[in-house]
Amino acid sequence: MGRVRRLLGKKVVIGILGVGILLVGAGTYWFQPWKLWVSETVREAAPTAGDGRGEAPRTLATGRLISHEHATSGTVRILRLPDGSRTLRLENLDTSNGPDLRVLITDAPVKEGRAGWFVFDKGAHTSLGKLKGNKGDQNYVLPAGLDLNRYTSVSIWCDRFDVSFGAAALTRV
Where is the DM13 domain (predicted)? Predict the structure, then answer.
């Protein structure tokens, strides 16, 4: 009887350890904690006309990023190129790295503190794609039909946890 108890006890301990290892592995994959120590810097040049006419892009809107879930700073500009296309440009971006970060343009108001963390996917929003890097300068093409009168803010959005790392209200120029 004592031998059976010892054998069952070992199997239970091994089972618990196995489940624990699986949970730690899944949690590590989900949270990706190593990204807190790894920065990705992107240095894209501002878009140019490229048509030989020498016209410079025109700034349509600007904004300054504020911190939400993570310390975030930098500026946002929306540029219209001479060919009519528009680009959202992040300049001097500095935020934390994280899992599944996106650039969203939204109709949500930018709120300071925790009140602003979760609002950017509630109303109208368009993802401009994955954040290319958590530091530096980067460009995102805006869809042709996007109404800038409706979309008034930008968020560095963590799609995995549905939270804003930082955001900027857009002011028309």
Answer: 58-171
Q: What is the pLDDT of residue 11?
A: 67
Please provide the DSSP assignment of 25-56 as one string: HHHHHHH-GGGGS---EEEPPPP---SSS-PP
d(CA 52, CA 75): 28
Q: What is the pTM of this model?
A: 0.79
Spatial distance between the Cα atoms of 173 and 108, rounded to a whole number of angstroms: 19
Range of the domain at 116: 41-172
Residues 64 and 125 in one domain: yes
For residue 67, is it within any domain?
A: yes
* Contact (Cβ atoms closer than 8 angstroms) between residue 147 and residue 106: no
How many independent structural domains does the chain possess? 2
Q: For the segment 96-128, what is each residue's pLDDT rounded down to a tens digit?
A: 998 899 999 999 999 999 999 899 988 999 999
CA 70 to CA 163: how far, in whole Å?
10
Q: 107 and 22, same structural domain?
A: no
Q: Are residues 108 and 166 in the same domain?
A: yes
Tokens of 3: 């031998």
The C-alpha atoms of residue 89 and residue 80 are separated, in whole angstroms, by 11
- Has residue 36 been placed in a domain? no
